[in-house]
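To: structure desk
From: M.T.
Subject: fold request, one chain
Message: Could you run this one when you get a chance? Sequence is below, nothing fancy, just the single chain.
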Amino acid sequence: MSNTKATHKDHPAVTQALPGLTASFQAGNYAHAISAANTLIESAPNDARIHDFISSALALNMNRDRAAHHALTALALNPNDPALAKRAISVLQRAGNYDAALAHTERTLYQTPTDPTLNHLKINLMTDLGKHRNAARALDKLTKGSTPILNTATPMGALSYALLAARLSPAVYKPADIIAKLQPLLTDDPAHANLPEPMRKAAHFELARLLERESDYDNAFATYERANAFNTAPWDPDAHSSRVTKLIQAAPHIDSLPESTYTHTTKSGAQLTGKNLIFILGMMRSGSSLLEQILAQLPDITPTDEQPTLLQTITAIEQELNPNDPLHTFPMPLSADRYTQDHINTLAKNALTRYEELTQTEPNQPTRYITDKQTEHYHILPLLPKIFPGCTIIHTNRNPIDTCLSNYTQSFAQPHPQTANLTWIAQFHNDHDRLMQAWRELEQKNQSFTIHETNYATLVTNPEEETKRLAQILNIQWTPKVLDFHKSKRTVATASQDQVRQPLYTTSVGRAARFHTDQADHLAPLRATLNTKPNS
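Reply: Done. Structure tokens follow.
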């Protein structure tokens, strides 16, 4: 529908419904709001406003492909509304549709050439696409003229410029030059106190990254500490440990649950079952994005990034069974002793429906494998073969200290409060390890499922042997194309998007050693809390 020749026309039903839909979505009733909006589209297909609403709602609900479809439809129906265009372009960017987002940004800039948001989007999109020189030229133009779009004489303009330039370092700009621009803007000078907190946080992470690249590890770590001080979301590591303990105690109940009896037939008439699914799970920053990008180069594999459907459905089931229990605020099957066949079938139905939406199976040519790299699925690992009999489970592992450090030094788009403190992330990793140990004991006891391990260091140092091993597990013919994964046009909408666009590198292996300097062992709190021996 994105190529429709129809034009936007206000529909009275949309005018009446939009305030309520917006309020419903803001209240967290995502499924209801999206379902009602879909119903409205049937009666008002040419009202760009409903496509605009549902594209933003779907993007926030992690359904990026459908969000992009509705964003493009809204733009096609009403190309002359700059406010709508900015929202739609942001959705396209989050969905990884960088080419389309850039094209619409440049078209909209013809109408409003001095719009700072659109100009910033243009530069970021060029950077996303690897058009670094073009982005640098566009950034330089913003500062020219008697009334520049980006006035670097003001603290706000200077920080905006430095942040955009930081993304282009070291590709275009020397790290030392950008460090010199960022550092004065991140002092306690009262003139900088009112700069937006998200920008200051992002600037600290960028400055720390560049300082680390310049081997100034003491100042880099101090800057990472200041960056994480902006993460004020609450986190109780002991409460999480209690949840994990209770989850381990629930293991026998999970093991005794029935398998799903739900049968999913796609619109093309093909069967979609657990045998089609590959789950890549483990600690964040342990190589899941890299592994999915590599596997996506094998024939018959469709990647779906990180899907929230299972975790959302488990949260709903837990809230249904224990509405007043604070332990059920995290998506874990703690009440597995009360899960019914209907609960298992609902989990299967919701997830398989979502996978079908994402893969768009062709008639008589079903996708052989679908990957889902939602790392937090390790919390529900033994439940996966109950919901999807025959599924493949791959656990990614990495040196614990490097894993925790990578979490601590990463600026995440979504809140992960456990990563803002070295002791917290170490305790979180400890909980991951003892939970995985419980699942391995369950695996060895019943042999009803298999956990396939892949190690980050092995993957980046010996990729051919490791990928051939995985291809054999999946019974898929290996191809040398997997070693050129970085040339794929597929986009990754996670914190690892830059990594998967580069050839394999080993500089992140043993990264933690950089922060044990002559001045201090900056990771001492991390080492003191981790109770695991490093994996190599």
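Reply (cont.): The first strand starts at residue 264 and ends at 265. Let me know if you need anything else for the meeting.
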